């Protein structure tokens, strides 16, 4: 089983990036990947035209069926009201007159709007959601869910954007939160017994202190998973074989908890290939 992992495509950011992404999908195809995981921020600003173009690209490269594709949203996919104006941190300085208006939208954002945005994302990539195991019957919000890739390998897919309905605590629309109750129930699912378990989410699991040393305190505070410690403790209990994520635009492999391997492919310029045979092989690819 070969699983390709890409994240943070930010499709729609520029024509140059979109062209590179098209080559990247066919590069993954040529690597004979059995399954493709896209762990959030597929688009730059969650616009319908971005989603349509990505879906067409996935069809052309042969990755638009549930047995070949798993997707989950990132913050850029859900909060188009914010990211259509503010593509990067520097935009706050260039577009300072828009900040008060956007701040009002952030204050007004609520759970029904979140559910609407999430439903639109799922509808845009609905072919990827066939034959999944969920904790509820809501097609508009299937997360968390399990996807069995074969008799050995199972994906456990979490939505790590759950804090954003309480968006007043998240002024850059980039912090994350995983609901611990539903995560615990899905990790304890009987269908996972004896399987090689891969957990997938969007937000990174690095300690804020590590990111702060690298990027500064503001960046670390604005991109963190708010309940990281709770989730890491939960993963320690169930000990998946691998965790995949993006969000932090730095490709690296690290460990959390009791030696759980984590791979971050949060950069459109790189991707990873996970091969599962007798053991686990992880390859970082340009």
Quick overview:
This protein has 286 residues and is α/β, with parallel strands linked by helices.
Describe the structure.
The protein contains eleven helices and twelve strands. The chain is of the alpha/beta class. The chain has a single domain, classed as Metallo-dependent phosphatases (Purple Acid Phosphatase, chain A, domain 2). It has a seven-stranded mixed sheet with strand order 4-5-6-7-8-10-9. Strands 3-2-1-11-12 form a five-stranded mixed sheet, with no helix packed on it. α8 packs parallel to α11. The protein starts with a strand and ends with a strand. The model has no long low-confidence stretch (mean pLDDT 88).
- Topology pattern, helix = H, strand = E: EHEHEHHHHHEEEHEHHHEEEEE
Percent of residues in helical segments?
Answer: 25-40%
- Structural class of the secondary elements? alpha/beta
Q: Give the neighbour order of strands across the main sheet.
A: 4-5-6-7-8-10-9
CATH class: Alpha Beta
Count of spatially separate domains: 1
Question: How does CATH name the architecture?
Answer: 4-Layer Sandwich
Q: Name the CATH superfamily classification.
A: Metallo-dependent phosphatases
Radius of gyration: 18 Å
**Number of helices, counting only DSSP H or I runs of 4 residues or more:** 11
Overall, the morphology is globular
Total strand count, please?
12
């Amino acid at each position: 089983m070969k699983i390709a992992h890409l994240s943070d495509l930010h499709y729609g950011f520029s024509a140059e990036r979109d062209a590179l992404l098209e080559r990247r999908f066919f590069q993954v195809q040529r690597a004979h990947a059995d399954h493709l995981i896209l762990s959030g921020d597929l688009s730059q600003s969650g616009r319908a035209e971005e989603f349509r173009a990505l879906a067409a690209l996935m069809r052309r490269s042969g990755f638009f069926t549930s047995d070949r594709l798993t997707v989950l949203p990132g913050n850029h996919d859900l909060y188009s009201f914010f990211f259509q104006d503010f593509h990067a941190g520097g935009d706050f300085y260039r577009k300072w007159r828009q900040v008060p208006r956007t701040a009002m939208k952030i204050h007004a954002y609520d759970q029904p709007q979140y559910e609407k945005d999430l439903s639109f994302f799922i509808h845009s990539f609905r072919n990827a959601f066939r034959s999944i195991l969920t904790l509820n019957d809501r097609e508009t919000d299937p997360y968390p869910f399990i996807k069995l890739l074969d008799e050995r390998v199972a994906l456990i897919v979490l939505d790590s954007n759950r804090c954003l309905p309480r968006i007043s605590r998240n002024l850059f629309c980039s912090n994350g939160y995983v609901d611990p109750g539903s995560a615990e129930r899905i990790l304890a699912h009987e269908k996972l017994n004896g399987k090689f378990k891969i957990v997938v989410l969007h937000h990174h699991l690095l300690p804020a202190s590590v990111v702060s040393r690298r990027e500064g305190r503001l960046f670390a505070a604005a991109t963190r998973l708010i309940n990281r410690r709770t989730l890491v403790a939960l993963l320690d209990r169930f000990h998946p074989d691998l965790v995949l994520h993006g969000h932090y635009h730095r490709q690296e492999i690290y460990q959390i908890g009791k030696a759980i391997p984590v791979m971050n492919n949060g950069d459109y310029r790189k991707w990873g290939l996970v091969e599962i045979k007798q053991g686990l092989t992880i390859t970082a690819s340009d």
